[in-house]
Amino acid sequence: SYRDLIDEDASHKMLNFDTASGEIPLWPEFTTTNRSGLEKILNNENVGYRNVWHPLNVQLPYAENGDSLVRSKIASLNTLWLPSSFDLIERDLLRVSSLINEFIRRKGIV
């Protein structure tokens, strides 16, 4: 799993889910203080990923100014979904994890 392969630090990490309490992660979510830098690396290496959806509080009919939901906005700006599919093989996981680990080693500098 990505969690086993990625060398996280305080600024770059996989998001945790409390599966024992019923949380179910839909996709592997990775957060970084430089999402655009990681996107550039992944794009250059033809690695597919997706940005997380906009926070629910900014979408109709739930829209509000968002001042009270700062963490939601930060999460949506800093998080992306890593490649995942039933066809993903270990070599793919190793390749993506290696790219992310190099990004982390360079402190998110592209």
Question: What features would you describe in this structure?
Answer:
The protein has 110 residues and is α+β, with helices and mostly antiparallel strands. Helices cover 35% and strands 11% of the residues. It has helices at 2-5, 35-44, 70-78, 90-105, and strands at 12-14, 29-32, 50-51, 79-81. Strands 1-2-4-3 form a four-stranded antiparallel beta sheet. Helix 2 (35-44) packs across helix 4. The radius of gyration is 15 Å and the shape is globular. The two termini are 25 Å apart. The relative contact order is 0.24. The model has no long low-confidence stretch (mean pLDDT 89).
What are its keywords?
4 helices; alpha+beta; 4 strands; single chain; four-stranded antiparallel β-sheet; 35% helix; 110 residues; globular
